[in-house]
């Protein structure tokens, strides 16, 4: 069975860039890679409804923290069989956003920490009830909130279809979410974590990706997982 890595972080942290670097590093080692991203706004009706609500549609839907979390959870549940198959047929399965995003953003909205009832509820809903596959390791892309916010603005300026949603434009929410992510890492919530940071150049990102892939895949044998070590780097591009 292949190794499943979930990449987490604030909006604009650089998760997609790290996923691409990890996939490239694995491919250069001869490993097979399957990549996935959530929410699947264009592929799943639940994610689509959540995305529309984040932009002001569907009345007061966005105001319900639990309703939004259920929609995001159902999106992942709908992809569970696909992810399991990917783990059975690939050496490395990479996921851009996963269950921890639901826990971190919902807890932040409720102004709870990682030990609060919302995080426990997300685990019970997604893992225990809906049977969403548990990742082998999670990677937090940790960047300053102001850097993540600037990237969101720059992305929107270059692509009119990427207008910041209700979560992306809420600086206070992003700050609380960053704190919850750090608490999830400290508690080894759901699976072991590694942490990477942000810097100027792409070379450090490449080195970080290579280190993570070597650590998780070993000599290329799927399932060679170390537990709980942290690999830190200083590069994430948008």
TrEMBL record:
Residues 215-238 are annotated as: Disordered. Gene3D superfamilies: P-loop containing nucleotide triphosphate hydrolases (3.40.50.300). Signal peptide: none annotated. The keyword rRNA processing does not apply. Its EC number is 2.7.4.9. Residues 7-185 form the Thymidylate kinase-like domain. Keywords: ATP-binding, Kinase, Nucleotide biosynthesis, Nucleotide-binding, Transferase. One of its GO terms (molecular function) is dTMP kinase activity. InterPro entries: P-loop_NTPase (IPR027417), Thymidylate_kin-like_dom (IPR039430), Thymidylate_kinase (IPR018094). SUPFAM superfamilies: P-loop containing nucleoside triphosphate hydrolases. It catalyses: dTMP + ATP = dTDP + ADP. Residues 224-238 have a biased composition (Polar residues). HAMAP family: Thymidylate_kinase. Phosphorylation of dTMP to form dTDP in both de novo and salvage pathways of dTTP synthesis. PANTHER family: THYMIDYLATE KINASE, UMP-CMP KINASE 2, MITOCHONDRIAL. Belongs to the thymidylate kinase family. This is Thymidylate kinase.
